[in-house]
Amino acid sequence: MVGGGKDAFIGAVHRIAARLDGDFDLVAGALSSTPEKARDSGAALGLDPDRCYGRFDDMAEAEAARPDGIEAVAIVTPNHVHAPAAAAFLERGIHVICDKPLTATMDQAADLESAIRASDALFILTHNYTGYPMIRQARTMVAAGDLGRVRIVQVEYAQDWLTEAAEQTGANKQAEWRTDPERSGAGGSIGDIGTHAHNLACFVTGLTVEKLSADLHSFVPGRRVDDNAHILLRLNDGARGMLWCSQVAPGNENGLRLRVYGDKGGLEWGQEDPNYLWFAPFGQPKRLLTRRGAGASEAANAVSRTPGGHPEGYLEGFANIYAGAARAIRAAQRGERAPDLDLLPGLDAGLAGMRFIDACIRSSRDNAAWVTL
Amino acid sequence: MVGGGKDAFIGAVHRIAARLDGDFDLVAGALSSTPEKARDSGAALGLDPDRCYGRFDDMAEAEAARPDGIEAVAIVTPNHVHAPAAAAFLERGIHVICDKPLTATMDQAADLESAIRASDALFILTHNYTGYPMIRQARTMVAAGDLGRVRIVQVEYAQDWLTEAAEQTGANKQAEWRTDPERSGAGGSIGDIGTHAHNLACFVTGLTVEKLSADLHSFVPGRRVDDNAHILLRLNDGARGMLWCSQVAPGNENGLRLRVYGDKGGLEWGQEDPNYLWFAPFGQPKRLLTRRGAGASEAANAVSRTPGGHPEGYLEGFANIYAGAARAIRAAQRGERAPDLDLLPGLDAGLAGMRFIDACIRSSRDNAAWVTL
Amino acid sequence: MVGGGKDAFIGAVHRIAARLDGDFDLVAGALSSTPEKARDSGAALGLDPDRCYGRFDDMAEAEAARPDGIEAVAIVTPNHVHAPAAAAFLERGIHVICDKPLTATMDQAADLESAIRASDALFILTHNYTGYPMIRQARTMVAAGDLGRVRIVQVEYAQDWLTEAAEQTGANKQAEWRTDPERSGAGGSIGDIGTHAHNLACFVTGLTVEKLSADLHSFVPGRRVDDNAHILLRLNDGARGMLWCSQVAPGNENGLRLRVYGDKGGLEWGQEDPNYLWFAPFGQPKRLLTRRGAGASEAANAVSRTPGGHPEGYLEGFANIYAGAARAIRAAQRGERAPDLDLLPGLDAGLAGMRFIDACIRSSRDNAAWVTL
Amino acid sequence: MVGGGKDAFIGAVHRIAARLDGDFDLVAGALSSTPEKARDSGAALGLDPDRCYGRFDDMAEAEAARPDGIEAVAIVTPNHVHAPAAAAFLERGIHVICDKPLTATMDQAADLESAIRASDALFILTHNYTGYPMIRQARTMVAAGDLGRVRIVQVEYAQDWLTEAAEQTGANKQAEWRTDPERSGAGGSIGDIGTHAHNLACFVTGLTVEKLSADLHSFVPGRRVDDNAHILLRLNDGARGMLWCSQVAPGNENGLRLRVYGDKGGLEWGQEDPNYLWFAPFGQPKRLLTRRGAGASEAANAVSRTPGGHPEGYLEGFANIYAGAARAIRAAQRGERAPDLDLLPGLDAGLAGMRFIDACIRSSRDNAAWVTL
């Protein structure tokens, strides 16, 4: 693992997700760019001190040289480190599982794209919300035509943790780097959570955003990146939509919600209650589909661990990405391609996300003019 | 009553709302522009045949001449009739309670404005959703600063009844006139329900929309007006927002929902569950405020009839407009001004709604360019 | 109207319910047993002073003698007055609409039964929750076999308004008479709300309670009647169930909830959100049926006024009893029987309720022994 | 692990729960009483074939003799095997984590009690629902007096998976052993899920059931144990309650719900939405407490892994029992007592559950007579 030392939020999530299905063991890390913190964090996790590295390139070099070196690495650093770190491992044939967004800048994205294309190793991007069983089900339902032709996509991702200037208190490392354009990229809320919303909408509908008009704003005085974004979407095949993301909407903890409407039916899903999926066939009563419930699909059941009514959550959804990565890695070891590889977000999703962020920023700077992706 | 004969939806609603608190008796009507239907509809309602008129101007003239003539008239016709019908009564000093939107066109709106300004009679516009107790409470909470400075306004009004081409079946009069620009005005969903959403957002926040960027669309082939609208809002005092209205979103019956976020808290309300109001003070647990419940305000209690847990609904909210109109009329009879008159939607709300519709259509024709209201 | 003067809660509800569909005009009343209050209350309601009576028997006599005397009377007094008041009108051929429970005591119930049987006039008991559209739908679904054979009935009615000793403050007339065995009867919560729960369960399932085991309790020191009841039910046809009613459950405003499970499916309904009915056919996804929605039945639509998504509430449900009473009275005037008369609660429901209360009290006094009804 | 081979449900749950926080490695097993299945199941889990045992006593003996033998064992067999299996390990000083209920019979319970008392090893019983963060919070709130004195406890556990005679199809191993009194014990639903409900109610309130009156029933023809139970409860300190459990309630997947009401407030929680806890202080608006949200307690945060809005579920709650067991084992290794040991269900909870099952069966056989525990 690269990144994920003390004070980090997402590193611990990756570790649990990797461990949950028993597919991965954590054996080495460059857990912090501060050597002492890297060492302490490694010790706290029970790592062999010899395999606690201060720099990711040292780690890549050393691990590649070991006979028992790592097969895969998780990169969970701030965004600006993704590209160089991933490249260091990819060029040595080590598979990479990387947090989103792809990188902090378009230039870094291009660099990383080159590194990925030049390597035989796999690159997986943890757009983890695609791992939820009911999201898998929603995707198959849309693909099967249960909604008819998709017309409308309403997606939103609302939080409230940046309602006040948390990054200016000196006590919130998360808030600091996520609002620092040098580390996070030019997008604030749009990069941190807007990309998840964009990715989820595309994953479920199978559509892509062709044009968008974005009104980004920073409500908190002194904030250096956007903390709220209102975006009009035009997708392919004539669909239209809206995307709202916000980090300043009090009462919203992690409110990622997706609604899709076609000419034959509608779907609604919310991340905070992920075991449910509403399906409204036009002209019939709404149905509440549940994970492993009576109306659950094969696609959902394939990534479920517990019976209906025994709720799975964020970590299980995240673990489904890791489990998919494990299947993909094992297949690659056999010289094969995992049958469900296309369900795993990777370079394409990452580039789409970067283009989305970039388009939003350009549109907003031009007063919400339409920008073609 | 003008309009509201057989096949009409909103006429029956007005009649119940007027009757619910015992303030009005229905004694005369021009219930249909078809004389026979006017007569039959009047008979079905038990009206004196002498007071069943075939034309609204006949009714205005005759009733004004009677010693026991009507004091107030409800106008519940298709939109293009609002202006001439209202004028006929206003110029004879008869108070007018008129369905929304104000008129079908901006020219008619100007005519009606003149008629209203020239008359001493009252003009009330039934933006009925402002009558819900928890909406009154939301308004007072925002005004009292419970949310701090308002930053974000997310409002939507989603229905599904026009998902298919109901207006082309010959069996749905409602769908026919509401999608006919001659009768409904140039706005489809935006005029029929978008104005309600716009009105509600402004009523609760006390803000006005300064600029908007609207992407209107007709998803149903052959439809002559918009059936879906995606709109970016810039309100005064720095607030921003989104408005979505749709008549083609399967699973949504009458989904008017409002969310308002300020720097100190958030509010959420949905019309289909109107007795509840979520209040999230930043940094504290969310509270579920209920009508006549522990946290209910004076403003809400003043327009409530039953104790908490005994749900009130659409008709009671609508009746609150009529009850307010009755208070206003009685005050006017005494030469006074009712203390709660400002809570009643009237000419100002009507004109704001017309400007909103007009701005949406102009923006959308110009590819969602910003239009200043 | 008999009863329903100032400070009364249910009188105002009856008046609105009677007026809502335009079937009844309030023209006379014995609104209070205190003459001055009777007069003042009548004046506040705009009654002719000559028709404001101090005593219900004066009213019955005088109204029966008038050529324009009342056709029907609503009795909304405390329970101990129901029997004599109803008898006074019934024996003069005036139809009676009476609040529940039937009477305060079993002896009074027997008296009233005699009076009802001796009269040609109608007797309607306002077990108003049977008037909700989705309850009508639930009843027809059970009768149609949608649930298969009914096995389990879980019904509850939870409130919190008597959590503290409100009857001892001197400021709550409602609490005073409803906890006074002389006026309310020997049942406290069981009589006031438990009967509603019992009635609703029987109305929907078509079953009757054969045996019960009741554990009544007064949690508030000094309270003279039960404020909580836990009851085991054995119904006919092998069904079993539970009934819980409480007035001391903080957070419950008016929580009447019914769940019915058969061998083919289940139904769930809650009074505070009355426009919804959950239907779970075994082995299929749950469906959310809505009033006037896609899955609404004729039985529900027949007692609905507004389209789906335009919520109806407590007053509309109550008004459905009055509207049914009006149809029954008009049919009686023609010498006919209204086709939906069996849906209206009357003597049978009232006696069943009294036997239920009596059985609960006897069972509880015998330490929750089984009592056969 | 003893039990948990192919076709088992709860074995896989235990394995994930044990692994989730990285505290346990699975290295040995007697996964099935069928040797071939034991071997195959072990292989599927990657166990060393030498440590795949056909019989639990072989396993206990062999592992106790190995220098790298297991420190703890999970027993996830049908109930009748719990006692002998646990004893085999306990007498060799190996810690036991055992599925509930304690045993199939009271005699077995006495045997197991002796074994536990004779051993220095720990015995943990996976009443896993006590591991949910919001349940921990509910317990601390009750203990802190936030509800005042507890008056009413309403607990229920409703499922529908045995609505039909699944045990008679030959295709459902779970249904077979869970309805077989030889393997499951005399209690059906009451033993399988009723004990969870009983345990949860006691865990949260700190109260014990003193008397109960139980009406057990088998609705499915030919079923050998109860599939539904209606129970009246009298708890200590004057509280009263109801417990309903059912496996034949269509539409209920895993509906464990607890409501507790005191003289100052109420709490409501449901297992299917475990990240929420409703708190209603009497006379104030209801508050929705969320895991790691603004109102979350230390007790809840101590067993949470992800931020608010990132839902945790059944596996995380279950894992909290394992994490607690790990802390207890480590403390024991240091000769200490883990500070949170009292939060872990063990022998006392197990015996209370057995007495509860036994009392229910005795009461029901005596026509729901009161039985003192």
What does it look like?
Chains A, B, C, D: This is Gfo/Idh/MocA family oxidoreductase. Chains A, B, C, D: Residues 9-123 form the Gfo/Idh/MocA-like oxidoreductase N-terminal domain. Chains A, B, C, D: InterPro entries: Gfo/Idh/MocA-like_OxRdtase_N, Gfo/Idh/MocA_oxidoreduct, GFO_IDH_MocA-like_dom, NAD(P)-bd_dom_sf. 4 copies of one chain form a homotetramer. The first copy, chain A, is an alpha+beta fold. Chain A folds into 2 domains: 10-121, Rossmann fold (3-Layer(aba) Sandwich); 132-306 and 346-365, Dihydrodipicolinate Reductase, domain 2 (2-Layer Sandwich). In chain A, 36% of the residues lie in helices and 19% in strands. Chain A contains 12 helices and 12 strands. Chain A has helices spanning 10-20, 35-44, 56-65, 82-90, 106-118, 133-143, 173-178, 181-184, 189-205, 298-301, 314-333, 347-365; strands at residues 72-75, 95-98, 123-125, 150-158, 209-217, 228-235, 240-246, 255-262, 265-270, 276-281, 286-290, 371-372. In chain A, strands 11-10-9-8-4-7-6-5-12 form a 9-stranded mixed β-sheet. Chain A has a 3-stranded parallel β-sheet with strand order 1-2-3, sandwiched between helices. In chain A, helix 1 (10-20) packs across helix 11 (314-333) and helix 4 runs parallel beside helix 5 (106-118). Chains in contact: A-B, A-C, A-D, B-C, B-D, C-D.
Strand composition percent of chain A:
15-25%
Tally of helical segments of chain A: 12
Order of helices and strands of chain A: HHHEHEHEHEHHHEEEEEEEHHHE
The total count of strands of chain A amounts to: 12
The main pleated sheet of chain A reads as: 9 strands, mixed
Q: In whole angstroms, how far apart are the ends of chain A? A: 33 Å
- Rounded to an integer, what's the Rg of chain A over CA atoms? 20 Å
User: Quick one: which chains have the greatest interface?
Assistant: C-D, 42 and 43 residues
For this structure, the quaternary state is homotetramer
Summarize model confidence as the mean pLDDT of chain A. 96
Strands in their spatial order, largest beta sheet of chain A: 11-10-9-8-4-7-6-5-12
> Helix- and strand-based class of chain A?
alpha+beta
